[in-house]
Amino acid sequence: MIDEEKLRKSFGERVRSIRERNELTLLDIEVATGISEGALSKIENGKKNVNLPTVFKLAAGLNVEVTDLVSNLFKAVEGPI
């Protein structure tokens, strides 16, 4: 079974890591994606589920491939997907 909380936290940590590595603020990402700073904060803290269009918006706003955002998620999930 997939631990959704662990998945959200892992995804959020990855978003934050890439954002900070690129020296971007939450406001920078809000401007680039249209996703509010509050929603971005919740995503980064694993408190908000994201849908597929949001994943693509985040990838574009962070200037990375979608696979860069989700590749670490396989480690966060135990067992087959």
Automatic annotation (TrEMBL):
One GO term of the cellular component aspect? cytosol
Output the Gene Ontology terms for molecular function. Answer: DNA binding; DNA-binding transcription factor activity
Q: Does the keyword Plastid apply?
A: no
Keyword tags:
DNA-binding
Supply the InterPro entries for this chain: Cro/C1-type_HTH (IPR001387), Lambda_DNA-bd_dom_sf (IPR010982), TransReg_Diox_bact_type (IPR050807)
Regions annotated as coiled coil: none
Name by which UniProt lists this protein? Helix-turn-helix
Organism whose genome encodes this protein: Chitinophaga jiangningensis
